[in-house]
Amino acid sequence: xxxxxxxxxxxxxxxxxxxxxxxxxxxxxxxxxxxxxxxxxxxxxxxxxxxxxxxxxxxxxxxxxxxxxxxxxxxxxxxxxxxxxxxxxxxxxxxxxxxx
Length: 100
Description:
The protein is an alpha/beta fold. The chain has a single domain (2-99), classed as STAS domain (Transcription Regulator spoIIAA, 2-Layer Sandwich), CATH 3.30.750. 46% of the residues lie in helices and 36% in strands. Strands 1-2-3-4-5 form a five-stranded mixed β-sheet. Helix 1 (22-36) runs parallel beside helix 2. The longest helix has 17 residues, at 55-71. It starts with a strand and ends with a strand. 32% of the residues are buried.
């Protein structure tokens, strides 16, 4: 699992690549902590190369959403695959995030 974070024009974008399963969630948790530092603005999670997300990965997304909500920012989730969209629908995440 790789995450590349870019800050430009007041938007923090995280490009997620690979499988966000339980071991990967532990590995990338510090990256999500870094994203929380930008929670007062717009955080974009680009999932175009994300092939899988587990409940541990969903927990990272949810914690980031809660932090941005508290700080007045927002999270945008972009380019999710049909499989991940189905997971988001089943868990109610589709209604919690702005999906592009």
